[in-house]
Structure formats: structure tokens, C-alpha cells
Batch of 3 targets.
Target 1
Amino acid sequence: MKKGMIKVSDGFERIVHWSMAISCLILMITGLGMMFHSFNFLAIPFGGLKNLKLIHNFSGLVFIPSLLAAILVWWKEAGILDLPDDFEWIKCAGGYLWHVENPPETGKYNVGQKAFFLAIAGFGIIMIITGLVMWFPLGLPVELVRWMYPLHALGFFVIFPFFFIHLYLGTVGVPGSVSAVLTGWVTRSWAKKQCPKWLREMEESGKLEVSK
Amino acid sequence: MSEKIKLCDLSKCTGCRGCQLACKQWNQLPAKQTFNTGTYQNPPDLQPNTWNIIRFQETFNNGGVDWLFRHDACMHCTDAACVKVCPSGALSHTKYGTVALDNSKCIGCKECVFACPFEVPRYDPETDKILKCDMCYSRVDNAMEPACVKACPTGALQFGDKDEMLEIAYKRVKELGGDASVYGDKFVGGTHMVYVLPEKASVYDKLPEKPRVPLSVIAWKDWLKPLSLLAAGGVIAGSFLHYITHGPKDTSGDGDHASKEGGE
């Protein structure tokens, strides 16, 4: 490894990230195959819609502990707004949508990432509850079960856009980001652009891990 | 092909259960262990292996007792909530307007069980599929009437073209007078089982007065489905536009040594 790289994630974080990402991706593809008749063909490689349903349900069982772990791991860093700095970030959209000379400095995660975390945490829990009811609906009140389906669809409506923007900004949109969840090491210039406040705090407290 | 209707004139029903048995016979649905609920109604409700039943109901009327019979089965809605929610296309409309079930396509998701305003589809845990009356599609498509209609000895059940059946229904309601009404042609786009009810609809057990496709199904299938496609397409297109106009963020810096000098 090159010298001077910065450690931004530990092994557990990366495992949580990928178990969420993979289960979420499978859930969205299999869910799409069941939600739209025009996407029924997605079931062909799995041998039919019934198998698609099974894969969907059991991927959900992987998603549940992943989401709970994700909330535990990231709620402190990504779940709480850092005012008033974060408000300044919102006002200029962090410089992501139009040119901003000096975007406000952010900690480990910016407001966009915090919004992503909160959306996934909140709607993820909704997906889990509604999904479990949809899996085992018999004997429950009819009117309750009926509303689980549109809520589950609402979850997709919210989660997919966040998921895709995350995918875009985590890869080609912000070059140098992928390694944060692959090896955990990023360049110093990346860290200085993406999480300057965090970088400073870590350096001041002497906790920053730098490759030698 | 014209729409077909099964007309069920409850004023002529004697509760003989010939329809219930004929259905079992034609569709090869042997009975299972049942239990006594204190009425002649048996089994107690529609089941995966019982696609139509006679509901027996006692109502008090001026010191006397009225015994009401109702042939209960799939209503075959034009605006069918079950067809709307079915993810696999197992439930579909036939050329006769009735709702057919291709059991081999059913994935046992139970969505129709909760969508149906009449609570008709029943889940069979043994096969992990749902089952319901398909208006004897195999017979109707071969110019025969459904098995239940064939068996009915009193003429309470009739089967034929929509216009003809509705004409008979309205004529019969006029004859009966009082609280009699035609039930089925005015909601969910018109059902393909239509009742002549001698009493008010509210008198009958488990017969919704104003059945409709549940709002949750409309919110889900008519609003959120197109909205989610729009949102998904929007962010994919938006991200692409962002990349080609705004461009990726510059995270390179002037090499890792320069950052110590403080300049961006």
C-alpha cells in the first residue's frame, strides 16, 4: 500500500456495509420482479416467481440483522445533524448541485449521507415490519394487512432513489470513494475533501491511522 | 364473446346445498374433517376445498324466525382487486368477464386473500397456493353452465348472457317488491355473480353493503407503482445528467504531501 493513506472504516463496518448492500440489491431485484408483470422475466434465472418469492423472503432475513447492525454502527456519526454547520451545508446542497467556492466543512458524514442513513434506517424498519406481516399475514386483522402492501411499496419508492444516488456518488460521482468500503483506506486528499472536520479531530486526538 | 352472469335468486333458494356438492364433484374437491357450529352451515366457511357454500342464517322477524339461505362464492368482479394485486398473473379475467385462476402460476403470496372485498380466495397451506371458484371455466368454455347452476333444482341459480340475466333479475325484484333488490351490477364495475336479494343487503351475514376495491390496493397499485418507476427513472437519468453537466467531484488534491500545506 502507498504511504500516507488514511483508515476510514474498520472490518466490521465493511462487513455490515456489504451484507446490507448485497441483500438490499437482491431484495430490490426480486421485489421488482414481483411488483410489475413487465418485470416477471427477472424470475426466469431463478426458475419462476415462486423461487423469486423465496429468495426475496430469505434475503430479507439477511437484511434484518444487517440493518440493525448498521443502525448501531452508524447512528452516532450519520444519524445526528451537526447544527448549525449542517444547515449551512443544506443551503448550498454541499456544492453537489451547483458550483460553491468553499462548501461548509463536514464531519465523517455530510447531510446527504445522513439523509441516506436516516431514510434507510427508517424505511428499512418499515420494510422489515411490513415484509414480515406480508410473509405471515394469516390470522391478522384484514385492514392492517391491507395497508402493509402500499407501505412496502412506499419503502421502495424512497429507498431505491437513495440507493442509486449512493451508488453513483460512492463510485464515479466522487472518485476515490470505493476503497473506503473495500480496503478501508482512502487518500489524504479524499479525506480532506470529504470529511475535513473528522480528519482534523482525529489528527488532534492522535487516533488517526495512517499507512506507513 | 358476451359477458356471462350467474344469477342467484335467493328468494328461490331452499338451502338444499346441491350447488355446494355439485361444485365439489365437478372440481374434485373431497370434503375434509369439519365441525359443528350449531347451524346447518357446513363447513363453517369457504375453504380451499369448498368454493361455494350455502350460508344458513336465522333472523327474528315480528316474533317469528326467518331462515335465510345464501349461496356464497366468488363474485367475479369486473374491477377485481384480486386480479389487480396478483403478482404472477395466476388470477385473470376471461373473455366472459369472469375471474379465472391458473393455479399452476400461483406463488402463494396471499395478496388476493386480503385484497378481495368479499374475502373469497382461500389459502391452502398444503399446496402453498390459493383456491377459489372459477365459475367452472372448463364447462363454460364448452358451452355448458357451471356445475352449481346445473345442479340447482329450484331455478335459484341461472346462467346466461349479462343483459338477459340482469333483465330477469330486475323483473324478479319488481315481482318480489318490498326490500328486494338486485345486488352486484352497481359496484366494482359490475360482478358476474348477481344476487336477487329478497331482504336488504345489510341483513345478510358477510355480505358487504358497499363493496369496493380497497383504498390500500388503489394507493399501492395505481399510485405508488407508477410513482416508484418515475422516481427510479428520475434518479437514474438525474445522476447521468449530473455526471455529464456538473461532473464528478475533484478529490485528487495536489498529491498527499500538499495537503499539509493547507491549501485546497
Target 2
Amino acid sequence: MSAADFRKLADLFPNETVTHSYVQDVELPAVDGKSPGTFALITLDNGLDHTKPTTLGPNTLLELGTVLEALKERARRGEIVGVGVTGKPYFLVAGADLSTVKSVSGREQGLWMAQLGHEVYSTLADLGVPSFAFINGVALGGGLEIALQSTYRTVSSGAGALGLPEAFIGLIPGWGGVYILPRLIGPENALKVMIENPLSNNRTLTGPQAYELGVADAMFEPADFLEQSVAWAAQVIAGAVAPERANAVDPADPQVATRWAAAVARGRAFVEAKTSNASPAPAKVLEVLDANRTMTQAQSAELECETLADLMQTPEFRSTVYAFLDLVQRRAKRPAGAPDSKLARPVGKVGVVGAGLMASQLALLFARQLKVPVVMTDIDQGRVDKGVGYVHAEVDKLLAKGRISSDAANRTKALVSGSVSKEGFADADFVIEAVFEELSVKKQVFKEVEAIVSPECILATNTSALSVTAMSADLEHPERLVGFHFFNPVAVMPLLEIVRAPKTDDAVLATAFELAKGLKKSAVLVKDAAAFVVNRVLLRLMGEVTAAFDEGTPAEVADNALRPMGLPMTPFVLGAMVGLPVAQHVQESLHAAFGDRFRVSKNLQALIENGVTSIWDPASVAAGNPSIPAETLALMSFGTTPSTAAEVLRRTQDALAEEIGLMLEEGVVAGPEDIDLCMIVGAGWPMFLGGISPYLDRVGASERVNGRKFLAPGVASEPASA
Amino acid sequence: MSPARSTGKPGANPRTVRDVVFVDGVRTPFGRAGEKGIYAGTRADDLVVKCIRELMRRNPAVPAARIDEVAIAATTQTGDQGLTIGRTAALLAGLPRTVPGFAVDRMCAGAMTAVTTTASGIGFGAYDVVIAGGVEHMGNHPIGAGADPNPRFLSERLVDPAALNMGNTAENLHDRFPAITKDRADAYAVASQDKLAAAYAKGQIQRDLVPVATMKPGQGWTINTVDEPPRPGTSLQDLAALKTPFRAHGRVTAGNAAGLNDGATAALLASAEAAEELGLPVRMRLVTYAFAGVEPEVMGIGPIPATEKALKNAGLGIGDIGLFEVNEAFAVQVLSFLDHFGIADDDARVNRYGGAIAVGHPLASSGVRLMNQLARQFEEDPTVRYGMTTMCIGLGMGATVIWENPHHPDFGTSTDAADSTDSATENGAAA
């Protein structure tokens, strides 16, 4: 076989942005007065700047394979003594071209893609001369596997983002990574790179961390990384340096076999805890890792190819690519419906009405990210002092953790002030309220604020469930009010729902989107409809599960019924985390707006009235064995129509499909993509669900309820035809 | 060798004059300026950074925090040669933030001035260890780009406008010294190419070159380890065929002048005490230096008065100088110097490794190249006690630095030239 045999695959992707393989001959520097010979240096470069990462598609691999085959021939003729691979500035390779891989149609094409990678990489691993990867920057997935397949590796101490994120994407590191890495750095470390990091918000390694784990044999600073790497290669080729691999293991060693099995078992527990095994990929990584301990590399390669071909067919993989590439990386950066940013007005001072926990978090965020003065107000000095004190204490925590410098801490603290008078808002450009969720209270607040601020000052509300339109009814300038809905904890959750009321003008909206960018939040434009997006979807879900519980479904059945979705937490745990009274309050608003689709649970009301904060005993949840205390049970009454877990799941799926269908009909957002983005960045819903609509499409709920799917074939699923 | 000169106020440290030694020097391979050159697309500051890092790597005994100054010269101080390049290069090279830096400009003698200025600081006791060097990316910064000569130069005839073009000044030199013919200049240029080729063959050049990785669109990375400008094997016939771009039927050609080049240099200097304390090699001792001005229209004769002044400062005669590293901006300029001091065109003491005509002359960087080569020749030839680096400078100046060879048997045994009061009469025969 040779790479050229895959021409048929490459020809299917004529529009691939090809990463070229350029070769330059380099005379290696003398070692002990003697030149080791000529070295062929390959640069992987797509000819575009650093905003366009180099990726691996079929045409790219074909070219690399052809180049490597020619170098193998040169090595055979004795013309070269080694081969190096490096990348354009900041990248070795960012991994497989996901757009291409996603559009691979049919299992056979997927298998070809997997085999093509192995064909090319096996040439790299068997050139007849040593191969070196000089990891100058980002090296993810198939990019890092190029390095792993090389005989030796150097890494730049300035390199960021090294990793094997396949388990997160919905694949396995199946171009040799899953075979080579555990042997190179030990099964425990390999597990960290292949499972734990991908499933922990897709964390990656820095150059120094990778070096520490043993992924690279040598590390050099970025200022002359390539020069030093080539000089090191000369030393290795001349035999003057022999890299030591302290973490490398021999899988045949019985002790290693024990460690290997333990690592796989630990990985299984980790995957179960993180994903409830709702996505097949992480378990497949562990399966192949488990199996390949006793395999030859060729045997493993075959298993890797078959597994990749299977996984590329899974909806979880395609949904993840949709969620990751189309939503988080693209749509989140260009929010649908945002007005021209040129309309935005500068914001040089911010007012926050209220000094409670939410208001204090907002003040901290505005001061830290926008670096403008922030004035907090509340009804008495005690509350004001508490709010400002909170901000100062949080800044001190950041300082103590070394996250900010003492100068930055001083600056941020100095930016935040408090007062019982709203006079400080007189020269503010943006005033946001975070007071009690009561329409009359909010209207009174805005009336007072409007009496002080300039006519251009933007007013914003952080309401989660009240009508922004109603809030603006008596304003002198209703066009200046916008909803600005953050998620708790504000510093962590990336979503910001920007609510446009009927009178909100474009300049105000444009400013809100620019502010969101300044605050480093992903903004989604939503219409002024009860509870907007995330809370409406979440409460519809929680409402269904609670209803099933109230009807007599056992708690453990009801609360675990959604496990196959792999949500970050169960509905009862989520309810307790949000706070039962808060959830109930929003549920009541939704009930008021939409009727019985959102049922208000009498049982929950009873718990709230008796000061019970959780259905489960929190200690039992922490211990991993949830139970309901007898005194809590005694407060509740149940119906006699219990459901099975499958019934609860299906009814929840249908409820979600119905609710999302209605939201789209009402025009709450521009499309299902926005709802998916909201659920991913606002509720932490997994990417293998694609947010939610790809999941509802694939389980049939959309068609059951609405008669059609939310997304066209190919968007988050297999393309319509091959 | 470093006696206390005088004392300050009570409580203050006594004023001392200290010996300055050249510890080490490196440079990038030089490139041809322009789109096809090896450094097209590479930043000038990055070239300096490579040199500084190589110096630190080659001299691990020097704690980076002990560097008291980084002086880097560039003729055009904008863009990638701007922003106080001594400081930016120090930061980019990873030196501690406590290490200061500054930028120097004296056109072609930039690096040489960076050396003499920081050396003076060492001698005065203000510094212990410094880095001095220079850079010119003439591809990124064409000669004279952005210059705005004062109209008074013209209206008051302060300087002939032609003198702002270095090629014209070289033609003017041929006018002044009719004995220096085009044939002599070409023969000198051929010898320069031959000597450089021979030095390369012996590995005398490569040992002070720092490899530089460069990447070009559609070609990928490569590692540059040799100079690009040399044209080994150049013959007199080749040169005879070249145009004389500065004057019809003139004498100055691309073949008997240095080209337009990209490159950087850096040297490590220290006080003799610091060198001893840190265990650093002493490869040359600074004896003295001088700068002099001449008519801008014949700037190439600048090295003559500068050398006379330096010899006088040193109390030496031209006959005491056993090795010359003369920058070859133009063959005619070197020949005028040699003629003045009665030295033959092919004297073996002069530019043993060839010169800028062959290797290139990235303006402000060249001074340290001369020093690197002189230091190597000192090692190779311990019979030589004193050597000289000298160069001409645009707008009519010359610079000369005299060095002593620590490998000479008499090094450190006889009178200290700087303190000598009775040898000043011993001027050079031709002075």
C-alpha cells in the first residue's frame, strides 16, 4: 500500500484547505567536529496566518504520505540521516479537519480515512532513519499523533494546547496514539491525556506539562526552538545524546500489566461519573487501550481503524462536531441577530442597583473585565458595605491564588465603590439592576434611576423570569432597556442571554453585545418571552421529572431516568443547587405564562414551606447513594400512576421537543442552533447531545411531537446521501 | 592593570579605571538583502535575539542577571529595528527584566560604537559585564529609507548631496587617489573572496555563526548556517564585466564593494576583574579606540585619522599592529588606508579571512564581526601582540579600536598602554 492508493478518498474533498508538506534539506551542525549529515526538515503549512490552524484532511495526508515515501527512498539511498517534522508558527497541527471528517459519508469512507492516517504515519515511523517531531505549537489529536509516531520529539516551552481530545470529540486517538502513548508515558499518564483531560472541559497540556509527562524527549524555549531542536537531533543522530524515558513502560512486564488494568478500571469509573456513558467514544478509548496491551502495533492499528470507522458513524460524534465547531467556535463568536457593532456606544462607567450576591458578582465582573468604575447601590449602608466587601474579598482571593498581580488587584478594588444614593449613576453609561424578582420593585428602581442618569444611559435588567417589556412600560425612554441575563456563578458560566424588548433600539442592543464581548461572555439574542431560553428548557425538563415523581414514580427511577442523556447532574440535584424556592418561582412564572405545560409541584411547595432545601439528603448525594430523609417524605404525597424510567425519559424528550418547537414558533431565538448553544454554554449540557436539538432529532422526539426534525440532515448528523 | 586613579568623597568608592576584555562574539550568517535573500520575511530583532541567546549559551558562567547593559546598534531605528532595540532584544532573548538596554546609531560603526561606549562604561566602573552588538536588515530597511536630510546641507553647501550616496563617495576617493585604479580595486576584491573561501574551508568562519531558522511561504522552515553573500571563485574577468552604477565609466562596482545585506552581531565584554571572578575567557584586551571626522564626500578615508588618533592614544606605532580587520565597504577605501600607512595590498596582516566585499556588510552590525575575527586570529597567532579593527562611516567618519592579544607571551608583563606617559612619541612610520 502507499498513500497514493487513497487518491479516491482525497478526490472526494476537492475543497479541503490543504496543509502542505514542504521539505528543506538542512546540513546538521557538527558534533565533536564531525557533521552527522543531511537532515530533511518537513514543514506542515497551510499558507494561512495563525488564525487558520493547520489541519489534517485526506489531501493533506496524501501529500504528507507521498513526501514521506520519497524521503524513505532517499534514506535508503543514504542521502539523508534523519527526518524532522515541524509546523508553521504556533502550530504543529491542530488535528483532523473536523469539517471534512464530519462530512465523510458511509462507514467505508470513514475506514479509508482511518487507514490513510495509519498508512502515512507508519511510513513516518519506519523511514529507515530516525524521525523527529519538533512540536512548536498546538498539537492536537492527529497532530500530536504525528509526534508520537516519530522516533523522537522535542517540544517548545511556549507551546500551548497539546492533547488527544478524541474522547471529547466522539472518536478515539486511533492514528496510533492509543497504542504509543501508554507505552511512552505509562498507562496512568496516558489515561490523563486521553480520558481525563478531554472529559474535563477538553483541557489540554502546555509544552512544559507534556515534557514533564514524558511526551517529549527534550524541551527548548520558543526564541530559538527550531535551531536548538535541530542541533539536538544532530546530537541524537551522532550518538552523543540518548534520550531517557523515565515514564516509558514495557506492557509485557507483569507489574505494568497490573498498572494497565488498574488505569483502565479507573478510567471506566471516571467516564461513568462524567458522562453516564451516554457517549460511546470514551468507553471505546478504554476498550482499545485495554485490548492493545498484548497486541502488536499492527494489530492495534487494525482495531483502531475499525473502531474509528464505527465511531465516525455515530450521531454523538457528528453532534459534537456541530456543537464544538459550528456553535461554540463559530456561532458564539458571531451571535445571530446582533446589530452592527458600529452602533455600539462606549461604556465608561457602570452602575449596579443592588448589592446582594448576584449584584456583587456583576460588579466584580464589570470591574475586572471592562476596567471601568462600577458603582453599587442598595437601600442601607450595611448592604452596600457587604456588597463592596464581597468584591474586595473576591479580588483578594484572586490575588492570593496568583491569578492577578497586586497592581491589578489595587486597580480593580479602586474601581468598585458603593453608595446608598443613586447620585453616583449620573455619569454612568450602563446601569444594571439585580434586585428582588418583583416587577413593581424593578419598575420603581428604574424610575429612580431614570431620574438621575443621562437620556443615553442604557438600563439593563438581570431578571430571569419577569417581562422586560412590562418593566419598560412606564419608562421615559423605554428604548434604552435591555435584558442582560447572566447565569450563576457569573464568573464561571459563559452564557449571557440578551433580551430584546419590542422597543429596545439597535444602538442599545449593539452596546449590549459589545459589552458581552468585553465581559468575555457568549451572548445569544432572545426575544422577551418568559424565562427566555435556558430556564425555560431546564424547567420544562425538571417539571416533567417532578411530575412523574409526584405521580408516584420512585425517586430513584424518576431522578435517574435521564441518565442516557449524560447531563451534568440529575434534575433533583440541579433543583437543590439552584435552590428550590428560586426554581419554584421561575416555574410559577412559566406556569402563569404558558399554563399546564409547566406544572407547579405541590410537593416541592410543601418542602419549600418547611424549609427543606433538597429532595435528596445532600449528604447521601455526596456519598453517591441518594436517599430521601423520612421527615422529607412525610411532607409529600404521591399519586398512584408510577412510570418506568423509559417512560419518564420519553415523556421528557417529548416535552423538550414540544417546548423547543413552540419557542421556535414564537421566535424566541433565531433558530434551534441558538437553543443548542444556550444549553451548552448556559447549562453545561454535553456536546454529544449537540446541545439538545440533534439529540431530540435522533431519538425521534422531534418527529413524534412536531412531525419534523429541527435540523437538516448533515448539520449534526450524517449527510443526506453519499 | 587597574590602579585606582583618584578617590572620591569620603565614603564613596574610589574612582578606578579598569581593563576591558572581549570575552566572546557571535553573529548570524549574513544574507543578501531583498525578497530572494535568506532573511526576507525574518525580523531584524529576531536576528539580534539569536545572537544574544547564543552568547549566553556559549558562556554559561555568566549569570544573566549580571549583564549590566545591552547596547544594540541599528542605522534605521524604526519598525523591527525600532523601539529601543537593545531593550526589546534583551526582553525577547529572555534576559531578566532587570537587565537594561539601549539603541546605538553611528551608521556602519554602530556595533563598534556599542562596544566602545559600553567598554567605556566598564572602564569607568559603571558596568561589569555587557552585551554589545548591532543589526541591519537592509531588506526591511533600505539604506537611507525615511531619512529627511536638512535642506541646509544643500543650500549652505555643508555637504555635497552626492556624499549621501556611499557609492559616490567611493568614486570620489578614486578621484583623490589616482594611483588606486579599478584594476587594483578588483584585484583586492578577488583576493577578499578567495581569502573568505579559504577561511570557510578551514572552518574559521563557521565557529562564530549562530544558526538561524527562517520560514518562507511555500518553502517551509530551513536552518541558515552559512553566509549567503560570498561568491567564491570570482575572477578578475567576472568583475571587469560589471557595471559601474554610480558613475558612467566609473570604478566602483557591485564586485569591489560590499553588498546590501541582512545580519546581526553581538559580543560579550567584561571588566578584567569580572572576567576573572566568573572564570570567563579573555580573548582580547581593549587597548584604546578613536573616532574621527573627515569630509563627508570622501568618507572612506575616515579610518586614517581615526587610526592615527587611536595609535596616539595607545602610544603605539602602526608597526606595532600585527593584524588588521578593516571593514571593506569599498575596495578603494581599504586601499587608501593601506597606501597611507605603507602597507601592501596583499599584506598578510590584513583581513586574513577576507572581508565585507565577500561576506557582506549589514551596516550597523559589522563592527563586532571584525572583532570576532580578530579574536580568532589572536588565538591562531600568539606572535601578534596588537591588532586593530577599523571602519569607515557614512557622512565622513572613521572608527578604530586597538586590541591586545592575551595569548602573546608578553601579555600582562609590560607597561599598561593606557597608563603609559612616555611612549606616546612612538608614532607610526607613516603617520
Target 3
Amino acid sequence: MITFGILSQLAALFFTLLSMGLLLAGLGRNNVRLVESGKRGLLSALAATTLASIALAYLFLTDNFQVEYVASYSDRALPIFYKATAFWAGQKGSLLFWAWVLSLFIGLVIFSNRKEPDDRNTPYVYLVMAGTLSFFLFLLCVISNPFDTLNFMPRDGQGLNPMLQNPGMIFHPPTLFLGYIGFTVPFAYAIAAMITGSSDASWIRKTRVWNVLSWVFLSIGIILGGQWAYVELGWGGYWAWDPVENASFIPWLVSTAFIHTAIIQERRGVMKVWNMVLVQLTFILCIFGTYLVRSGILQSVHDFGATGLGGYFLLFLIVITVGGVYLLAESYSEFKTPGSVESYLSRESTFLFNNVILLALAFATLLGTVFPILSEVVTGNKITVGQPFFNQVNTPLFLLLILLTGICPLIGWRKATVSNLRRNFLFPGIVALLSGIVMVAFGIRQTYALLAFVLAAFVGGTIIQEYVTAILSRKKLTGESSPGAAVKILWKMRRRYGGHIVHFGLAMMVVGIAASSAYKLEKQATLKQGETMTIGDFTLEYEGFRQYEKYNRTIYAARLGVFRDGKRIDEMEAERRYYVNAKQPTTEVAIRSTLAQDLYVTMPGIGQGNEITLKVAINPLLIWIWFGSGLMVVGGVLAIIPSRRRES
Amino acid sequence: MEIAILVVISIALFIYTLWPSFKVAEPLIVELDLRQRRRRLLEQEKKHNLKAIKDIDFELATGKISEADHEELKMLYSLKAAEAIEAEKRLADESSDA
């Protein structure tokens, strides 16, 4: 199976290069048959990458530790589902996963275009995607082959990092990759449009689903990463502005900006150059994110070449950046649109402001992420930029963004007047003001937290007003019942209301983030059996201790009774786990989640006579972050469900 | 055995890939002449302006713009759309004359 895997990768590279040759020949000779062959070549590459992926999965499932990658990320005791997911636990498997998903996406693009005749754009679209695929296949075949073997057969593997043995980690990397890779499609269409000078919005329309879908996957990936950090790492938070987190967050910000301005181009036929810039930037940042994480440069600039990938990724980045800038400069006159925005009081201008803020956030985050690298290059010393920098710079920008999220739906396209604004702002303004008064009355004094709550209420008020107005109008027109009108509006105008749901989810997240950051309580105590500790309204009693074996680990668990106002309301179990092949024990967090707060317990130590050290936190409204992010995903999916009417 | 299977699959894929290129060649690109390009641009211009009229009607219905602004914008977009339609007609007449 090892040779099978290696040859499959080589076959995939061969078919991709063949396909590029055929597509170029099709363009050069003006022959649609050659283009058709080129597309088939890409489907053959999909078949070959699928075979290579099956081969690697098989090697993991059959514990073939002669393969260095399998020996590094698996062992005999590893539960079967983690064996399957160990596929993407390391660099080499991740690259194969990239190549496979990209070839799958190319196949889906070919499938979705099957009814349309090939025009002058399509060969370029497939060429760009094939070029990207060939880059990853080249890395797999030449630099970082997951089928490389050891010259001996180890009795067992080194096992998977215990922190990665978490359900969140099964889905987090693939969803993130799906997001990154998905942006190859709009990028390819944009490049093709620039080459052929097709300045209309057809590339935006064709790639809208891909844009939003990739954004949804990227969002899910980021959320799952945060959730994994929260339940697995045991420090009580979900986001630490870690470079790996930032690497996915930066393209998310830019792609969010692109999704908004793409709407303007679709509706108004303006901002064509800006959209070209944004889509290229999104793709470049996706590759840059992968480069940051996979090149080793984050550890130290001196590790840049350690993985063997750094130089190749850098070269690829230079090629796509220089190529993109050159094409944009060449086609600038075709895409330039004079007199874009009619009034500063219009939805277009709020979209522009939102773009400015999103890009400022992306730039600040990028700067903070690469600053240690830059400082090491310039001074020889690595100066790390910590959480305070990101919080200080990004929090006000985020608050401005939330304000715009609320304002935007209240302003019409093209032109609005002050009197319209006054009328439309009345209800959300009152909601925001009242919520501010209530917050102050409840003792909320932290400026940023208070602002966040008020702005979230403003966004919520805006969306509720929009929805209720639409329901009332529909009822008046059709005579439908309120629930009937509510459902029909949601379905018939799902693109618009999908967006509103995303914004509502964002407002919920803001509330959760503000509350859990500003009003978190923490306490640490060492307890003997029968002793108690108190935090906030809760009292925890150490009731019992047990030790047992499960799968590939030995578990030490402390049972804790949870009391409130002297009444036993729940029971929690905090654990320490010793995994086979792991050098250090890990803590398993116990969480009691309600809408109001999370009671978060970790057990950093076990002493003599099963005396335990507990670290307990109360995170107010934290679950709102997960609910809000779930709503964002639901809204995104709703917005891309195709309309039959439109298709016909 | 595995290698043999892979070789067979690869040969099959190779034939599948090249099959269309052995068929009689057909042109891919029908180059648009200047007139066709102009027609396409006018079509886009017309669509954008008609869509813009729909948009401002909706904005008026939902109270986002005033009646005066609605009137002014509607006039502007109607004129632009009419110009595009007129130019399209002229272009069609020129083509039929030619």
C-alpha cells in the first residue's frame, strides 16, 4: 500500500500537469476538445488523489508503523476514530488533505458548470486551480511525502498528541482547510476575468456560493478551534491571539469584507477593482496562513527551512502576489468604474466603512502576528506581541464594526435622508438606550463591556425591526397569518435574512465575549475529601475520587458536588489523564453550562492521599458565544441555498 | 497486485482524459467583435438601471428613502435605462442595415 500511495500521488501530479498542458493547448489552438480533455485530466487527478488518501488512511487503520508519518502520529492503543483523524494531525497528511480537497472542489466546479458551454474564461479558471493543485502535489511528491518510510519497523508508534484526542479536533482542521481551499475557486474566476477582461459581475455571481460556503467553513473551523481550546487546554479561555489562530482569522476578516463589497458589485456594477483586490488578498492570506503554520517560521526565523516547505511556500506566495498585481494593473482600465457612491448616507458607504474597519483589523492582527518574525530579522531578538496589544487595538475596532452592523440595514441603497434615518433609528436606538440603563442599574461599569452590550442590543433591535416590518408588510399584502408570513419571508428572501441571522449571531457572540472577558471570576484551592470551596454563588464539595482505565489512557477523576444557596444542584467530575506514550498528564475540564454562566473546573494537581488542587472559574454568558456562532453558520448556509426561480 | 491495479486504473484514466482530444476539433472562443461588445455593455447598463429602479421602489416601501429622493433617483435611472435601450435599438438597426 505504501508504493500504491506514492504512485497515486505521482499519477495525480502527472494528470494535473497533463491537464494544464491540454488547457493551454486548447487556448492556443482554439479547440474546445482539448479543453474538455484538460477538464477530464483534472477529474483523473481527483481519482488519483482519492486513491492516495485512501492508501494513507488504510496505513493508519492497519498500524503500518514502517511509514514514518503513521509512526509519528498514531499507536496501537489509539481509538479507531482518532486513527482516521490522525491523517491530518501533521504537516505531510495535511498537505495530502489539501490536495485531495482541492481536487474535489475542482471536480465540483466542473460538475456545476457541466451544462454551460466552455467560453474563453473557463480554461483560465481551471488553469489557475490546476496550478495551485500542482504546487501542493509537487510538495507531496518531492518535499514532504507522507508515504516516506523508516528503515526499520517500530513495534509501536509515538501516538497522537493527547490534546488532539478531542472530538473538536476531528472536525476543526478539515473545516478550516475546506474554508482555505474553497477560496481558490473565486480567486481562479477573478484571475480568469482579469486575463480575459470580463469586467461584468458574472464571476461574482458564479462564485457567490463558493465565497459564502468557504466563509462558513472558515467560521466553523475557527469556532471549533476556540471550543477545543476552551474544553481541552484548561486555561479557561477560547481565544488567545495565538499566531495559529490569527492565521485563520486574518483571511476570515478579509473574506468578510469581500462578501459585503461583492454585493455592491452585483447590485450596482461598481467597486470592481476593489473586489479583485479583496479576493486576491483573501486567497494570498489563506496560503500565507498555511505557510505561517507549516513553514516553522513561527518558532524562529532560523527554523524557516526546517520543514523544507518554507522556501516553496514563499515562492508560491510571491508568484501569486506579483502575478495578481500585474494582471490587475494590466486590466485596470477595464475594471475601473467612475462615480461609485452617490451619497455618504447610503448602504454602499456603510459597506465601505465596514471594509475599512475589517481591513484595519486584519492589518493589526497580521502585524501583531508577524512582529516577532520581523523583530528577529531586524534585531536578532524575538519580541513577542501578547494579548494586550491585540485587545487594545482590536477591541475599539470591533465595537465600531458592531455599530456599523446595526446601522447598515437601517440605511437604504443609493441615498437616504436624515428624516428617514431618524425614523428608522428610533426603535433600535431606544432598545440600545434601555439596555444601557438596565446594565448600569445592574452595576455594569466597564466601558468596553457596557458599550458591547449596548451595541449588541442596537444590532438586535435593528434586525427585529427589519423582520417585524417585513412581516407586517407581507401580512397586509397577502392576508397571511403572522407565523406564515414570518416563515415565507425567511425562505423567500433567504439571502437577505440569512445575512441578518449572521449579524444577530454576531451580536450574541459579542455579548458572550464581553461578559466572559470582563466579569470572569477565578479561584484556586487545594482540597481534601469532604472539604469545600466557594466561588460566586457556588460551593463545590470534593465528594470522591476514582481511578480507571479507558481506551489508551488511565483516568484519575475527582467527583465534586455543586451547591447553590445550600442546595445540591449538580455533580461534576474533573479529570487528569495519563495517555499511553504521552510524556505528561493532561487535565480534562469539567464544565457546567447554563445560559447565565459556565462553571469551569480543572484539576491541575493530585497530591498525597488524593488531595486535589482545583482551579475554578465562572465565565458569565459564555454559552452565548457558541449559540451566536452557530446562528452565524445557520445564516450563512441559509443565504446560499439556491433559488429555483432564479435558476430558471 | 496493488501496483497492477494502479497501473490499470492509470491507463484507464489516461484514455478517459485524452479521448475528447481525438475528436474533430471545434472552436472554443468566438471572438466578440466591437459591435457585440458594445451590445453586451449596453445590456448590462440597462439591467443595472432597471434593477436600481426596483431597489429604490423597495427602499421607499420600507421607509428607507424619502418620496422626493425616490422621485429624483427614479427619474435618473429611468433616463439612463432609456438611453441604454435607445442605444441598443440604434445598434440593432445599424446591424440590420449592414
